[in-house]
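Hello Y.,

Per our agreement to keep a running log of every chain we model this quarter, I'm adding this entry. I've kept the format consistent with earlier entries: sequence first, then predicted structure.
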Amino acid sequence: MKKQLLLILITILSLKSYSQITFEKGYYINNANQKINCLIKNIDWRNNPDKFEYKLSENSESKNATIKSVKEFGVNNISKYIRNTVDIDRSTDNINNIFYDKRPIFKQEELFLKVLIEGKSSLYQYVDGNIERYFYNKDNSSIEQLIFKRYKTVENKIAENNRFKQQLWIDLKCPNFKISKIENLDYKKNELVDFFIEYNNCNNEKIVNFEEKQKRDLFNLTIRPRLNSSSLSIQNSSSDSRNTNFGNKIGFGFGVEAEFVFPFNKSKWAVSIEPTYQNFKSEKTTNLNDTSGEVLIANVDYSSIEIPLTIRHYFFLNNNSKIFINASYVIDISSKSSIHFTRNDGSNINSLEVESRNNFALGIGYKQNDKYSLEVRYQTDRDILGNYVRSWSSKYKTLSIIFGYSIF
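Predicted structure for the entry above:
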């Protein structure tokens, strides 16, 4: 089954899933100020691009356009990028590499800036790896960076240059704005977007809010009951009579998954955490002596809370359905679990406390309307006798069919 599941995962990874990344209606403006309607390959850029792929029609060959030949491009009703030569400070935010100088170190660069808010005063974003900068202009003036920089003090403490607050207070006046509003503003996209919306509304200016156009469901809370097919075998290094295969048992489990979808790359990547209850009970009888009729009875009662930490990748089939694969690191917390060996006369021979180790899991599934899901998940071998590594070894395996219903 493990090999079959891996084969399915590899097969899906090799497929080109429909509508995963598509050419969508858009446009670009060339250096001659000509607007060309086209189809743009929308990969939902996390980092600001310096080129993009487009088609002039559905059946034409794709071409590449670069920042050198394009002044502006956009995907209709989704996003817009403009070319501009700006002074940008690329000072790092990495605490280990932060400088003592609080002044921004500007370098002039030609960039595609992502338009967040377009109005009397517009807000732009530039992202490149860990660097995230915001720019603005007012009444079609030149575009400037909103200045924010972390730096070290002489006492080796981390401080912040929040010059952007002064820029906003001076340039974006509104009778309703109090200084406290500016002082409490953080250099974060959501807060800056809200501020620029308020400013434009205060001045009775119409805006285009590209962030509102791109809002999507980035959090899912899902109830996930499951059917488990589990098996357990244990071995003792000094006594073969204690070697026990408890066989395969069908049981039920129940989990609640919190999934966080990354807001880029067309929402194809997600991470999740899923506390799950599972239980395994079994009894195995072994004849120790056919003459005397002595029997060894092994009982296992193993229950735990599994906490899979999962990374997930979606393949879109259409607007309402998608396939996903995921890989998990499973943290297992056992609770009052044990294995007992007794004779047929009721006398206790040995008792083992369960102390489980963590393991890994692979899954493949299908999701419909972001509401219903079905997943098949295979877990690698788990040792549940971690306290007895010198004398005992164990293999606990589980194959699960997981049903999901998203409540949020």
